[in-house]
Amino acid sequence: MNPRAGTAGHTTLAFVESPVQLLNVLEWAHAHAHALRTKGDGAPGHAVAIPAQGGRRSGAGRTTADGAGATGLPEGEGLTLVVLSPTDPMTRGQLRRMAQLARDEGHEVRWEEARGGATAPLKTVRGLAPLLRGAYRVVMGDPFSRYVQLLLTITRARELVVVDDGTATMEFVAQLARGERLVRWHRKGGRPAARDLLFTPVSASARRRLRPGPRRTVNVFSSMPIEETPPGVTVTANDFAWTRSRFGPPLLTKGADLVGTSLVETGVVDGRHYLEAVRALAEAHGARRYFAHRRESPEKLHALAVETGLEVVRPELPLELIARRGPTGRTILSFPSTVVHTLPLALAGTEVRVAVCDIDPAWLTENASPRAQGFLSGVTGTARDVDRLSPVAPR
């Protein structure tokens, strides 16, 4: 029996809560279609797929000559992107623009106001339950998300795919390999909170479902360095082929661009130390623009602009797309973050230099997780094709 029977139109469901997750789902769809084209599998549901290139689309709902749909996926293997919308206005704006890019690729997008009131989660889960039960494959961007973990308890999907949600993917795979409770790296150690204990059965069920078995495969699609791989889990490299095929190469400008981080907002790095480090780094390398992280507070960004003289830019899309479209500085400076792994891939073939500045342990707050320094050092130390800078000394 064809395992995809009865699932046409919703073969693959993808759940995203951030612009980066949505970008990486598009990268996964592009890579998946390319793999099918290369493999040339003639089995039902596996028609050879040729993704559109150079911005030329076939048009949603139409079929190319080889049997592939407009998305580049085989006919009958549609991708429905479900946006579990957050409340943060900056994130929502980026998600709406990314959702339009997904529609331009021919994918269906379903926008859920998943946090729009006390009854929204229940309504969202009820509305998605039929799709979850019928999906052959579920793609998720954040396995730490309680929303996603709850949805995993409903699905009967034969394939689970985890795409990058930044550096958290490294910690997720390591925790899964060690059989540990799924906890974000920046969460302070100690006893779980009361609501964490209440959610423990759901989290444990999700963790079990994220382990491969006789009736389920698990794949991690990542640009991060994965050192510990759980038995049976397949890791596929994300090289940002979709981004490079659709955008750029960028026009390069003089000077440097500096990439912001939300380490202050997550309570890892002290705000005053961070501001002084940004100022010293900008002066040392001639940075002119500061690309803000979507979670950075307006108050912090205002103080940063006043005290450093940098032009603060609020990107409308993930930085990988902004940098690829340009104009872009010849040097991009960053503290330990996802972009030190993704930008070298997205900017491959250009002359842009990516440099990462280590976090001085003195910058950490007293509330930072005991794992914070080791994790951040690992993010920097495992980055490829970047220049590594020592922590900058304030004036």
From TrEMBL:
Chain intervals for the UniProt region annotation (Disordered): 37-74
Domain of life of the organism encoding this protein: Bacteria
Start-end of Low complexity biased regions: 52-72
Name assigned to this protein: Uncharacterized protein
Source organism of the structure: Streptomyces nodosus
